[in-house]
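Q: Structure tokens for this one, please.
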Amino acid sequence: MTNDNNIQVLQDVTAKLIDSCEGYQMCADIVDNDRTLKNEFLQRKNKRNLLVDEFNGKITALGGEIKESGSAAGAIHRVYTKFVNIFKDDEEAAVDALDDGEEYLAEYIEKKRKVDGLTPDTLNLLNKAHASALAGERFADFLDD
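A: Here is the predicted structure, written as tokens:
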């Protein structure tokens, strides 16, 4: 597999990771009155931002252009979540959005991990991102219970 293909996979996943950072920020904004939950969302956003930085570092090392924005699908999801928030309890809406987003991210990364010919470095980053998404899903499930 060429560097171009590895770069493309990394860029695709990076866009989704950026979406998730924006999702965590949105969740933190929604639960503004619950300082503990707000801080947890912001900490998870910061950890995810570090992952974005790792992905962009690898993209740069391979000669690609870094991703600085998320995907169109992520923007649509955030608009939908804000709309749903009007009709739900704030915390419930935030947890629902988080759960949906992390589940989507884990499934998306799982598909990308199956692309033939990825380098060990690319697979390592994808595995790290996948583990992060699964941890986010478990966190949302915990909050939902």
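A few notes: Confidence is low (pLDDT under 50) at residues 76-80. Helices lie at 3-30, 35-61, 72-85, 90-113, 120-144.
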